[in-house]
Amino acid sequence: MATSRERKLGPYAVFTISVGAMIGGGLFVLPGLAFEIAGPAVILAFAVAGVIAFPAALSKAEMATAMPETGGTYLYVDRAMGPLMGTVAGIGVWFSLVFKAAFALVGLGAYLTLIADVPGTTFALVIAAVLITINLYGGRITGPVQNTLVTSLLAALMLFAIRGSVEVETANLEPFLTEGISGLLSAAAIVFVAYAGVTKVASVAEEVENPGRNIPLGMLLSVGAVLVLYPAVVYVIVGTTSPTVLATSTTPVADAAGSFFGSFGVDFVTVVAIVALIGAANAGIRAASRYPLAMSRNSLAPQVLQQLGPRGTPTVSLIATGVVLLVLVGFVPILDLARLASAFTLAVFGFIHLAVISFRQSNLSWYQPEFRSPWYPWVQIFGLAGSIMLLTQLGWVPVAGAIGITAFGVLWYRAFGKSRAIKDSALLDALRIRSTGRVVEMTQEAIASGGHAHVLIPVLRSTRRSRMEDLIRFGTMFGQPGGVVEIVEFEQEDLDSDRHPAGIDRRFEERTTELAQRMGADVFVRRLLTDDPEQTLLEYVEDFAVDLVVSDLPREVRGTRRFINDMKDVRDHLPCDSIFLRNRTVRRVQNVVIMGTGGPFDVLKISLAARISAAEGSQLRFVHILPDEARIQQVDSIEDYHRRLEQLVSAETESEVSRAADLIEEISRVASDADLVVMGAPAHRVRIFGDMADRIADTLDVPVMMVHTNRAPQLAWYERALERVIY
User: Fold this and answer.
1) CB 211 within 8 A of CB 370
2) For residue 654, what are the β-bridge partners?
3) Which CATH architecture has domain 11-421?
4) What's the Rg (C-alpha) of the chain?
5) Which CATH class is domain 436-726?
6) Is the Cβ–Cβ distance between 706 and 579 less than 8 Å?
7) Which pTM value belongs to this model?
8) Which residues pair with 186 in a beta bridge?
């Protein structure tokens, strides 16, 4: 949620923030290392990397104008695809920023060795510690200072490119593609980190005035500027530096400047590089420390990471980031840092593209960006494919690192965040809308079908007369005109008994037929003796094409315990629709509460409730209870679903969507004045720990109709997984 920070950053400030975040180790350190891989084609490699980075700028600019709030990539991915993907993206962004900062610091150490005889790693560690301390005390570069530094940096690099271009030796550029396309792509993958800061401005979007114009304008101008500047500078580096020197250089800009500016050029470029690399490292530390803080606030990381210092800095998060940074600077070689930084940047850019696609496909009313990425979705598909292609060029270690961090994010979410996080996102909203739309269509068809063609009512000899009346009443109510309604007593056969075989004892048939006639119901009555009532019932349903079973789950006493267990097992294996009455006898039904989920069970629940209403003039109340932390967007989507359902029935209706910490307690409150509660009873092929639906029914002091259907559409494994997340 946006804060009340003053919007004071104009288009040039956005431009300088983006450019300042990009220009760093990628330009001042990598040209030499990438030259060893691709030869002179390293010039083109910087352009290729920029072209693949450009779609991320378009995607991030769109989301930043829709949600001009602090948070950046983590915020967008979390809202687009939910907390699981948000956790993975948040951890990935954090690592990418830490690796980039470490890479900048190691490069900084290399440049400092040009003016002081001290090991570069020592320099890097000392400056890292200083920057961490400064951030702990809340130091930061102000807007005017940022503008001045970046402007000066751009001017210095332009002077270098213009002056150096006249000194280029064309012989250094031939042959151009010494390592072929493979070498070109490998170099482009390594130098991709040079564009990592292009989306940084989105993290301060709430401070930008007129964000709908200034964010995309500043971001796209910055990408365009460096797309021209990077190849121009690298062209001068390659054309003015000996190939043998360049292939092993970690200070390529200074080496090139020395060839045409002399010692003054080396000193000048060294100062420029130091300023740029310190800025890049500091920006990386500052930005990285905010991601654990943001994840903690969303319950995806320990609360201790929210601890702030006297000046409002995230102390614990900064210390944790600093420790990892110091380890990387001290022990990881510079080329490996570049590879890992690029790998995580490519993965993060992939998440950015997926987030835009999720938002666009969701068609959500609240997602209204002032700037929309042109050529959607081809730009995002190109950016995603390009990111994946470059990621594969980095070698197995960076790829394994990216996969490992993804797996760690998933495990972290399942172990820590799943029970705490708000499971809501644009993608889940879109899936809910799509799924509930399908449910509404199926419900309309079920109501229009006129009922079930063959209804079976299995009973016990000991079934109470009042419950028998309920079963006959609902069985005939749910059957089609002209259909078949059967009442069958499946009785356990006792081989040692002297009782008559099935078909001779007619008392059950006579009593039940007399009751049905008094009720005006046209039913068939029969009695079957069997040594396996459960299996016989299942076979009977199959053999006679029964499409609805209406039965009773009586109170559990010694004489009914086996029947109850058998019927629960039957309920879980029936190949047709079924309903089971629980609790009290059903009197006049004036108020029916339908406990909804938005899932496939709603079709049968609502169609049966509509028939009850048509027969008895009942009011229907659609009820949906969400977790206490559910977002308003989820509440809105369920309320819209209820409005669409209300249009399908002719009865008087009410809708209630509530949020509660205790589901069972809230259901008891909502259903306290109901004459009948209709709720789903999901199947369990293996019943070990009981069932939530049964536990809810046990707590209610009103009649309950438990509904199960096997007519839900067959879903692929990934669709079933998504429905588990949604419902």
Assistant:
1) yes
2) 621
3) Up-down Bundle (1.20)
4) 35
5) alpha beta
6) yes
7) 0.65
8) none
